[in-house]
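Box 3.1 A note on notation
Throughout this textbook, protein chains are presented in two layers. The first layer is the amino acid sequence; the second is a token string describing backbone geometry. Keep the layers aligned when reading.
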Amino acid sequence: MHFNYICTAKTIVKMRIKEILKEKGLSQKEFASRLGMSEVGFSIAISEKGNPPINKIKEIAAALGVPITDLFEPPASDAIICPKCGARLEIKVKE
């Protein structure tokens, strides 16, 4: 089953952070502690419910060792798996 899903900037940033953490072999817990945050606080900040200020996004990018613009690039994968239902979601970036 395939669903079309239009990504918001917030969704792209969240997915890119997770993708970069995976590439670097870091857990969210390890990374959160580098930022002086709890794992729960970090998770909420990058969730759809969170709304981190641009300064926090800059701090996250710096701690990841990437330019902030990298966080707004669509993920390398063209699809994600929904964590709630397991459906494959194709990513289409709205221009």
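The longest strand covers residues 2-6. The CA atoms of residues 13 and 72 lie 5 Å apart.
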